Amino acid sequence: MLEPSHNFWNFSIEFYSSRTVSEACLELQEKFNLDINLLLFCLWYSRSYGKFDVDILRQVWEFSQEWKNNVVEPMRSARRWMKINSATLTECDTEDFVSLREKIKVNELKAEKYQQLTMEKLVLQTEPLPLTEISDQSLQDNLHSLFEIHSLPDEISNDPQLGKIIEAFASARS
How far apart, in whole angstroms, are the C-alpha atoms of residue 129 and residue 41? Predict the structure, then answer.
């Protein structure tokens, strides 16, 4: 398997750094249980390669679902539980508790980085890599395919948070 170039990870870090984008992503994650790494993948892939092949999406989807369910979500769940329950701590417990929560948060981010690097490896191992015209239609097609494989309701396509993300993506390309 080819080594990833970190292009997907670097794109994600830069794009997600916008407060508008990060807040919109988190809302979509909460509202639709959308894997944000897959959403970012659609954006990155459409910019880098155009419309993805169904086989690429299926490989990335299968890996991501397993990884998210067995690695990322348990850490996220523990971190959220700790945040909610931190009010019940005594003063002497707080420092260790906060430190542990921060370590979980750091490891959750490392797990998401690993997920993205693996997703990029799956793309790079495709021989030959399909290259289609890079256009706004590629992004729409990729998002549609993602929402379909994710079994998301049609309403996500018109969600204002998705609109903010697409707008930010279009602005970043200019």
Answer: 16
CA separation for the pair 29, 125 (Å, rounded): 29
Q: Is the pTM of this model over 0.85?
A: yes
pLDDT digits (tens, 9 = 90+) for 99-156: 999 999 999 999 999 999 999 999 888 755 555 666 778 899 999 999 999 999 999 9
Please calculate the CA angle 119-124-128 and round it to the nearest 5 degrees: 135
Dihedral sign, Cα of residue 25, residue 26, residue 31, residue 35: positive
Asked, as a colleague might, if the bond just before 128 is cis with ω within 30 of 0, I would say: yes
Q: What is the DSSP letter of 90?
A: -
- The amino acid that residue 21 corresponds to is V
Quote the DSSP letter at residue 153. -
- Centroid of chain to Cα 91: 36
